[in-house]
Design brief:
The chain has 167 residues and is mainly α. It is built from 8 helices and no strands. 66% of the residues lie in helices and 0% in strands. Helix 2 packs antiparallel against helix 8. The N terminus is likely disordered.
Length: 167
Amino acid sequence: MRLPYANQAPSGHRLGALPTDLGLLVNGHVPADETAKLVLQHQVLVNSHMTGLIAGGYYATEGVAVAETEILRDITDRYGELTCGAGGAALKSLDYSYRLHLDEGHGAAQVGGMSVEEAHIEGLTRFIRRGDLYGLDLPQALEGFLQIFSAMAHWWTQLANRARELN
């Protein structure tokens, strides 16, 4: 069942790709414990007053964003194939969203020909690399990186365990 979704992206593609293409409502669900812990860790970090901690935490999340987005695309493509017989470009809203984030040729890729996600990590890399210009505390950035990286490693491990339990 496809759900009507009124919001439109500037290109004419719908926003809310999961409900639009796959009928999946994800907002409002109570997350799994490991997901809630990861989100809480992220919120604590980014609400910090410590620039280095924030930069390091974002560096950890952005460093894996391309790979995680590609994994998510594989999952939603497979889910679409199994539930509605469609995947990839046939899931128009999801395809638009993935191209927006991953494709270097997309109109949103305006930083040196990099995809949106690649530009995020490159910008953070430049900021951290030039941290002395901004008074960035590098040990603090490392702490932020390690905090989020550790939380993400735990999250991925728990997701893998859940997947094995389902099979």
